[in-house]
Write a structure and sequence with these properties.
It comes from Racocetra fulgida. This is 19261_t:CDS:1. The structure is a single chain. The protein is mostly helical and 146 residues long. It has helices at residues 62-75, 78-95, 111-115, 118-123, 128-138; strands at 19-20, 27-28, 35-36, 41-42. It has two domains: 1-56, no CATH class; 58-139, no CATH class. The protein is built from five helices and four strands. The radius of gyration is 24 Å and the shape is extended.
């Protein structure tokens, strides 16, 4: 997919992350095994072969649970939900050696929108002219050590 004149983005398929640790049920790609076989893989980054056991997390009390769920739903716009759905659909199609581009009437996920993060954009939303003025005024004051 061509985003700009000089940048080409291609998809890297790692396969399914569907192999479970036999101790803690963490999900891995099969290539992440450090020992064992395809049928009995051993992983080292989750529970150290069952040596680390975390307690089961209980659901938070009702007022907090409702607030958490509402907050998560509020963070996703309709465009975010559509893009996520299209990405999932494209992943499923790729497992069948197809892509959404094979279906001309289907929308394509908005890749550029997915790469942007609204929180980062809000954080970085500063007055660029003010920053340029500040730099123009202060750069001549710097000495060689700075």
């Amino acid at each position: 997919m061509q985003l700009y004149d000089t940048v080409t983005v291609s998809r890297h398929e790692l396969g399914s992350m569907n192999v479970e640790c036999s101790h803690c049920y963490a999900l891995y790609w099969i290539d992440e095994k450090v020992a064992g076989s395809v049928f009995n893989p051993v992983f080292s980054t989750c529970c150290v072969n069952g040596k680390v056991q975390l307690p089961i997390i209980n659901q938070p009390p009702e007022p907090l649970l409702s607030l958490l769920i509402e907050k998560i739903v509020d963070l996703l716009t309709q465009q975010d939900i559509e893009n996520c759905s299209l990405h999932i659909l494209d992943d499923i199609l790729m497992q069948q050696s197809k892509t959404l581009k094979d279906f001309p009437k289907m929308p394509i996920p908005n890749i550029i929108h997915d790469f942007s993060n609204r929180l980062l954009n809000d954080e970085l939303n500063y007055d660029q002219l003010k920053l340029c003025d500040f730099l123009e005024k202060n750069i001549p004051c710097l000495n060689e050590d700075q």
